[in-house]
């Protein structure tokens, strides 16, 4: 479960930087930056919901072994 969360967080960061790239490259002529940042928000919500569900169902512990 921790690997899935880390992969999703990396996807969030990648989407953030792609949005930054599109803002710089397109200079407002297309909506690619908006789409990239919308994907980032959606991924962030999925990570948040997955963390809550993982804690609720006991899939993710508090880190103590």
Protein described:
The chain is mostly helical and 65 residues long. 78% of the residues lie in helices and 0% in strands. The protein has two helices and no strands.
Distance between the termini: 16 Å
Q: Total number of β-strand segments?
A: 0
Low-confidence stretches: none
The chain-level structural class is mainly alpha
In round numbers, the mean pLDDT is 88
- Encode the helix/strand succession as letters: HH
Main β-sheet: number of strands, strand sense, barrel status? none
- What gross morphology would you assign? elongated
CA radius of gyration is 15 Å
Layout of strands and helices, then pairs:
Elements (H helix, E strand, L loop, with lengths): L1 H25 L5 H26 L8
